[in-house]
Specification:
The complex is a heterodimer of chains A (121) and B (108). Chain A has 121 residues and is mostly beta strands. Chain A has strands at residues 3-6, 10-12, 18-25, 33-39, 45-52, 58-59, 68-73, 78-83, 92-99, 108-111, 115-119. Helices cover 0% and strands 50% of the residues of chain A. Chain B is mainly beta and 108 residues long. Chain B contains no helices and nine strands. In chain B, the strands form two sheets. In chain B, strands 1, 3, 4, 7, 8 and 9 form a six-stranded mixed β-sheet that branches. The chains are: A mainly beta (121), B mainly beta (108).
Chain lengths: 121, 108
């Protein structure tokens, strides 16, 4: 079945970096855009950017530009999200998400299980 | 940037109809998507393009979108519908996805 399996929980210190992985299975990996969405405790969903799994082209909102990098490895159907200079308010569950077939501006139809990133001194 | 406004909470009795609103400037000109999120779980797409249901979503879920308000409608509400519901749009002006703050649907 179609699924996204993410790496495990992380605990980081302020100023550090975190890299979360997301392995896709059950569909043509290179046929879709992939997104990262985060959710701080008790808060709403926040989009962090997308990556075209075929070309590797990315798009990040201004809030995360310069601090986030999304990459992919087509040989193992995996995408990665690298977030640098972590602050306390980066503590959140990070989700990888597949966009529907029409491209980067289509709805998000498959979600990973989420990865908790804790930031603690 | 574009802002989506949702009520923090909505309450409904079992068997009744729930309406969750999502307000935004001229949102009727955009495609609105809706997600359901139960505690401790990842969100699930329940409506896309205002009113289309993905496979597996009951026909009890429907939507409308006009003017400055989009609405998720759930008829014959069940206890299992209790969850947070978030709306989403693509803001072409700022080239980014925007989510509403989410609405907690309580089934009394």
């Amino acid at each position: 079945q179609v699924q996204l399996v993410q790496s495990g929980a992380e605990v980081k210190k302020p100023g550090a970096s975190v890299k979360v992985s997301c392995k896709a299975s059950g569909y043509l990996f290179t046929g879709y855009y992939m997104h990262w969405v985060r959710q701080a405790p008790g808060q709403g969903l926040q989009w962090m950017g997308w990556i075209n799994a075929n070309t590797g082209v990315t798009n990040y909102p201004q809030k995360f530009q310069g601090r986030v990098t999304m990459t992919r490895d087509t040989s193992i159907n995996t995408i990665y999200m690298d977030l640098r200079r972590l602050a306390f308010d980066d503590m959140a569950i990070y989700y990888c998400v597949r966009g529907r077939h029409r491209g980067a501006t289509d709805a998000f139809d498959i979600w990973g299980q989420g990865t908790l990133v804790s930031v603690s001194s | 940037s574009y802002v989506l406004t949702q009520p923090p909470s909505v309450s409904v009795a079992p068997g009744q109809t729930a309406r969750v609103t999502c307000g935004g400037n001229n949102i009727g000109s955009k495609s609105v998507h809706w997600y359901q999120q139960k505690p401790g779980q990842a969100p699930v797409l329940v409506l896309y393009d205002d009113s289309d249901r993905p496979s597996g979503i009951p026909e009890r879920f429907s939507g409308s979108n006009s003017g400055n308000t989009a609405t998720l409608i759930i008829i014959r509400v069940e206890a299992g519908d209790e969850a947070d519901y978030s709306c989403q749009v693509w803001d072409s002006s700022s080239h980014q996805w925007v989510f509403g703050g989410g609405t907690n649907l309580a089934v009394l």
